[in-house]
Specification:
The complex is a heterodimer. By secondary structure, chain A is α/β, with parallel strands linked by helices. Chain A has 13 helices and 17 strands. Chain A is globular and about 65 Å long. Helices cover 45% and strands 9% of the residues of chain B. By secondary structure, chain B is an alpha/beta fold. In chain B, strands 7-6-5-4-3-2-1-8 form an eight-stranded parallel sheet. The chains are: A alpha/beta, B alpha/beta. At the A-B interface, helix 5 and helix 10 of A face helix 2, helix 3 and helix 12 of B.
Amino acid sequence: MEYGPAPESASEANAFLDRFQRQFDHYINGAWHTPSEAGYFEVINPSDKQPLAQVAQGSEQDVDAAVKAAQKAQRDWVKIGGHARARFLYALARQIQKHARLFAVLEAMDNGKPIRETRDIDIPLVARHFYHHAGWAQVMDATLPDYEAIGVVGQIIPWNFPLLMLSWKIAPALAMGNTVVLKPAEYTPLTALLFAEICDFAGLPKGVVNIVTGDGRTGAALVQHEGVQKIAFTGSTEVGKIIRRAVAGSGKKLSLELGGKSPFIVFEDADLDSVVEGVVDAIWFNQGQVCCAGSRLLVQESVADKLYAKIRQRMEKLIVGNALDKCIDIGAVVDKVQIQTIDALVQQGIAEGNTVWQPSPACPANGFYYPPTLFTEVSPSSTIAQEEIFGPVLVAMSFRSHKGRCISQ
Amino acid sequence: MTATNLSAGKHPKDAPFERNPGASFDTSFLENIQVNRSAVNDVQPLSRAAYREEKEWQAAWLLKAITCIDLTTLAGDDTRGNVMRLCAKALDPVRHDLLAALGMEEAGITTGAVCVYHNLIPFAKEVIGNKGLPIAAVSTGFPAGKITLEDKIEEIEKSVAAGATEIDIVISRDLVLNAKWEELYHEVALCRKACGDAHLKTILATGEIPTYTQVAKASMVSMMAGSDFIKTSTGKESVNATLPVSLVMLRMIRAYHEMTGYKVGFKPAGGIQKAKQSLDWLILIKEELGNEWLTPHLFRFGASSLLGDIERQLEHFVTGSYSAAFRHPMG
């Protein structure tokens, strides 16, 4: 008995893209804003490498227009008070729930992550974040009487959880009376653009949410803009450092959420079958493109081989394939560039003498797929034990015992 | 799916692999069994049961499910009449127009077995005759198991003599609760001996076993004692088959297979009433144990109303509309 294909329909998402003739402008001051000079760039579906839409490349002038719109809107946004802001946030949450299926399909097409994950995790969480922060807005006057809004917040978000990261950034900022200029990642701007339309549906005042699309140059213009009082960034450690330097001395507030290399520690008395499922969630959820992925497996020597065998057995059953197929476990990696980064680190891991293993089923050839990969008996000094890979690659090593608070290898 | 793998011999003796002979009682089989309850409960929603087969694939999986049903009636008001109707349905479980539309008329689809109380075996035999469908009898003081071991053995021997080819026993839960594993081993091993050629399905009654670790150990002891199947529930406890408890038992079946090379079957029972649920279990089996366990020799549902719902789903696949349950013959 084999699994049949269980494709989720893309028709509603395609209808949304077609309604815009597959070309998107910036969303500034409650209206679609033609890019001033830099034109458009292409966004593709990593599951099949087909183009999805052309999206505006934001220039300094575009960012400036967006920040000015946000500044203009902010005074009234504070003045209407927490209770009124809560009503808008509740409306946004309801609109997201109303369009949940469209968001889930579009996110899966844009990012390559499985529809089961966008449908069951990303989008429900997005709605909950808006509900949660609507609650904070509602009680702000009573609970946070000495706090006040910062002003305009410039927000730069990554491609691994596009709409979820948008909600983490936008919902709390709006709740507390700030207005925002948000730049989604250039690989995955589509759900943010759908969200812009949702803001219209919810009747959000003009200029409270502005979305400027583009690559790192657009982000740099936003970071350097003098009208921005705070920068919030989630993304790579490398870019985070650049932003930290750019913001230093400017008086802007800054929050950074960067990379990681989290350990997953297994002692000999653990339920190893359950450990395997935990490992699958830790490193193969979202193709391993998670900043808090459990990417380093530390396992007590006495059960290491047994656990590795169980993990390999489980890996043989992981199905890699098109994000819209409900039967797959692992979708596509976001872009060719990311495939190259992952593969370069894997090749370096092999060159440094670590043992690599991949399951036998081949990945589909028509998209950006990377097979689940396991390195065992990795030495803690090797590159792959230290650098974040940000892909479906698990790096395993053993330890002898735990004395006091530390594990001794 | 080919017609052959559906119509292959259902009788236990036709199994294409060697029967689990059991092993001598060995506490090393029980060492290191630790089941993390919250981890097991957490596995379910996303990674497993969320698969959902569609269209002709779903129809194929549902036909597979029918071949794995132990069509059961275990009620105080069972009569000769309803047992005979049940057996007729087991031999001919899907409406012929539906089978024709699915191109499966010649596949010889039947349920996996029928399952009845001991005193109703003769009526089942009257209908089934020599048609090869296994008759399972519940035994050993079902469902509570509160009779003496001698009585349990005698009950099994009587059922086998009456023509049961499969015996569903219940274990003494008090032995599990008091960690008397060796005593449990002897009880099940004696039942196995009394079964002779009949296959032994051992019911753990997991709804009355408080921890997953105890469920896992009871599973392992039952397999060591020579069970051909381990089964979740009698259907009479307040909590019957659940997916997490099934996962715990399936992992033990896999571990036993890895340690001894013998394959033991699995039977969830109680509360499995909907076609959708049957897919959850089939997929769980495929994921945990692989395709080779997706056969009536190694997997059964203990169910009574499930067949009717599957038939409704098949009708929906064929005609595009649902009918009321009462439009289908009893099952």
